[in-house]
Amino acid sequence: MTNQKLLVTGGAGYIGAVLVPELLEEGYHVTVFDAFLYGTDPGSDPIVHERCERIRGDIRDFATVDAVLERGDFDAVIHLAAISNDPSSELDHEVTETVNLQAVDHLMHAAKKHGVGRFLYASSASVYGIKEEENVTEELSLDPVTIYAKCKAEGEKILNGLADDSFVGVSVRSATVCGYSPRLRLDLTINLLTDQALTDQRIRVFGGAQMRPNVHIRDLTAFYRMLLTAPADKISARAFNVSRRNASVMALAEMIRDELDSSLPIDTVPSDDPRSYHLSADRARKELGFEPRHDLVVAVRELREAYRNGQVLDSRSNIYRNVAWMKARPELWRSTTKLVS
Question: Whole-prediction pTM value?
Answer without folding.
Answer: 0.95
